[in-house]
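Why do we care about 3D structure at all? Because function follows from shape, and shape follows, mostly, from sequence. That is the central idea of this module. The next example makes it concrete: a single protein chain, its amino acid sequence, and then its structure expressed as tokens.
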Amino acid sequence: MAQPNVAGIDPQVQSQCDAFRADYRAVQAEIAKAIVGHEEIVDGVLTCLFVGGHALLEGVPGLGKTALIRALADALSLKFNRIQFTPDLMPADVIGTNVIMEDEHGRRAFKFMPGPIFAQIVLADEINRATPKTQSALLEAMQERQVTSGGEARKLELPFFVMATQNPLEQEGTYPLPEAQLDRFFYKLLVKYSNREQLRAILDRTTTGHQPDIRPVIDGPRILAHQQLVQRVVIAPHVQDYAIRCVLATHPQGQFAVGMVNQFLRVGASPRAAQAITLGAKIRALLDGRFHVSFQDIKDVATPAMRHRLILNFEGEAEGITTDMVLDKVIGDTPQTLDAVGVGQR
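And the structure:
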């Protein structure tokens, strides 16, 4: 029988943790061949992949959102499809439709023609340029890993990962994503401008004929195995309670709500936010060589897990408040542990 190591982890589990970190770093290195900078965004996308969630990337055009997702697809041995969302895109263009087919004997019958959603990695490019009706075509696929057409449910191949890009809502020709759609995304990641050094590296790569050689380094079964490993990472009750209270602190007029929440929020984070925080924190723990979640892990992932799940009220929008500002206050003011009377920080 294998004996636990110094850290108290079974050697077999330790081997699985080491394999996870090796695969994570390998995919990260392949992406870095094509993408300069954006390390935080790459980490966020990979976190979504290895927990079985979906990623939403927001930023103005030209910042490399689509290139990053294509680089990730090239580094994985998975089927990849891209859907370019436009105002005239229809739900059937996403999930597929039944068409009449005629066989060699002249008999006609309906046959389902699958849409581009039938892949393992789906890039929903500029998702908020399509109407809400078409955006909602992704809801069942993202949550249930299946689509229903013609009254028949069809399973999607696992792992199934949707990466969507969207332009800021202030831009022309955009539609806000429905709240139910936003809640299906594990993280919302904000892609920002590159700095001077990064722009120099981008120009050196893209204006000199450089072609990145990105190789597939991991396949579907290994990703599914890593997703199961993440689920097994330990989170102590008091650390889990801190994550719960961070979510409850975003509920206006709730027991743990801070003043900024009561003043500027109309809707707080859903239970999916608590799930995202917990699983994202488990990824941080594994990458740090631990098999248990810390308070800092929770703090590191709380903002991308909740920023898209909060809805500002009229006063918040009028004052130019962002959900990130509210979350900074929530994370800063929520004590890690409570004393016996329910107040104070240890």
